[in-house]
Design a protein that fits this description.
single chain, globular, 2 domains, alpha/beta, 39% helix, Alkaline Phosphatase, subunit A, 453 residues, 4-stranded antiparallel β-sheet
Length: 453
């Protein structure tokens, strides 16, 4: 029996409750749809790191802390990861991503071929180093307008950057409208380009087995031409202010539209795979790394929180046609951290059924805020942010979900999905599960935890 090709597609930021139209279309292509699938984190880097390592964030370490935020969160290169595993098994490995965080500089290594199509609007003259300097200056000084930014750059003797930024500001007024029209942005954030590259890659007649990992960003913000979503998200975290209902309805509508668009692109990709004789003897996985809040709980965006809208994700699997894998009907849970073992089991042709995916108990973790905020916050803003800067664990077990606040060492909330009574015994048992998870993880990793109030 031949080793199968392997294709993993992450529809970044796709909520499980929006995936229905794609499920019905992929079932006709013999995909199996799984339930009770839980991401290990409510944002990109830790969740992807769990897919690649098979570990929870506390063990792989690629997660936020009070001192380490989004662009500084990286997967340690010493980690054994899926791409390297498959390389050792003789696979040619390909990473095609629209998300800059899922790239070799952030620890996602082991690929023979890498292509990134940044989902954001391009800045013609500014490189990543320039953007980092600007970000740090803006966070430190909080300029209210461009005139203040110019003064800050002059005071800090960033003359070259000042010239580049001024020229860039002029150019984007001409360039961005043209880019938006030509590339259908923000509805398309790279899917068309990535699919075109896959089509070209599969014209290669070599007999090498391929592992292709794709991250599509169409469902991720921005949903509007302006930066309004980011502004609303950040102000809401700092001020707990009420989010405008019209804005919520607008982004819900856009989210649904962009979901349907990327679903069409997934089907287009499946057609290419069939045309290139890649489809039949391939393991194809379609999933998401996390969801998105669209006004629920008076929040928008993702990260920080462990609501179901953020950590319940879809999982659809098309098994290789030559493999006879028994499908287990189970009400247990599936963690995205199980995908590595599952994929390697298929690659090694050792799986007779899908039971390796299931667990009685699964977890999700949040270590607080992954975004970076300006330094001159008001007392109210500091207080609101401090409430979010806690380490929390979501525990899923036997129809219950508990949120354990590690920083305060208490169960914050319990949800019963099937109407079972929530009493003190349930609360104590959920806390016991969370504490045992921490003890095992600390023993394995050597991580030291400090309770923070």
């Amino acid at each position: 029996m031949k080793q199968p090709n392997i294709l993993v597609i992450v529809l970044d930021t796709l909520r499980n409750d929006f995936v229905g139209p794609l499920i019905s279309r992929l079932r006709s292509l013999e995909f199996v749809s799984y339930n009770n699938v839980i991401a290990t984190s409510p944002w990109t880097t830790p969740s992807h790191a769990s897919i690649f390592t098979g570990l929870y964030p506390i063990l792989h370490g690629a997660h936020e802390t009070r001192d380490r935020k989004i662009i500084d969160v990286r997967l340690r290169k010493s980690r054994d990861i899926l791409s390297s595993d498959l390389s050792r098994l003789g696979y040619k490995t390909f990473l095609l991503t629209a998300n800059p965080l899922i790239s070799p500089p952030f620890g996602f290594i082991g690929f023979d071929y890498f292509h990134m199509h940044d989902y954001r609007l391009p800045l013609p003259l500014l490189n990543e180093k320039d953007l980092d300097v600007l970000r740090e200056l803006k966070l430190e000084h909080s300029p209210k307008n461009r005139i203040e930014l110019v003064k800050i750059l002059l005071r800090n003797k960033k003359y070259k950057l000042l010239i580049k930024d001024a020229a860039n500001h002029f150019l984007i007024k001409l360039y961005h409208p043209l880019y938006i029209k030509l590339h259908d942005w923000p509805r398309d954030k790279g899917a068309r380009k990535i699919i075109h590259i896959v089509d070209k890659l599969l014209t290669d007649n070599s007999r090498d087995k391929k592992f292709i990992f794709i991250n599509f960003m169409e469902v991720h913000e921005p949903y509007l031409l302006s930066q309004q979503f980011s502004k609303v998200h950040r102000e809401n975290l700092l001020l707990n202010n009420e989010i405008d209902k019209d804005f919520v309805e607008t982004i819900k509508c856009k989210y649904k539209q962009y979901s349907m668009y990327v679903f069409d692109k997934v089907i287009e990709l499946m057609d290419i795979l069939r045309r290139r004789n890649f489809f039949d003897n391939s393991l194809i996985i379609v999933t998401s790394d996390h969801g998105q809040l669209l006004g629920e709980y008076n929040r928008v965006g993702h990260g920080i929180f462990l609501y179901d809208e953020l950590i319940r994700v879809p999982l659809l699997v098309k098994y290789p046609s030559l493999f006879d894998v028994e499908i287990t009907e189970s009400s247990k849970y599936i963690s995205l951290a199980k995908l590595r073992k599952f994929i390697l089991g298929i690659a090694n042709q050792k799986l007779e059924d899908d039971s390796i995916l299931y667990s009685d108990i699964v977890f999700a973790e949040s270590y607080g805020v992954q975004d970076v905020f300006r330094k001159n916050l008001s007392d109210i803003e500091k207080m609101n942010l401090a409430k979010l800067e806690k380490y929390r664990i979501a525990v899923f077990f036997n129809g219950f979900k508990g949120i354990f606040n590690v920083s305060e060492w208490r169960i914050e909330d319990i949800v019963s999905y099937d109407g079972k009574k929530i009493d003190e015994d349930v609360s104590n048992y959920m806390k016991k599960i969370a504490v045992n998870f921490l003890k095992r993880s600390i023993k394995l990793s050597g991580v030291k935890l400090k309770r923070r109030n």
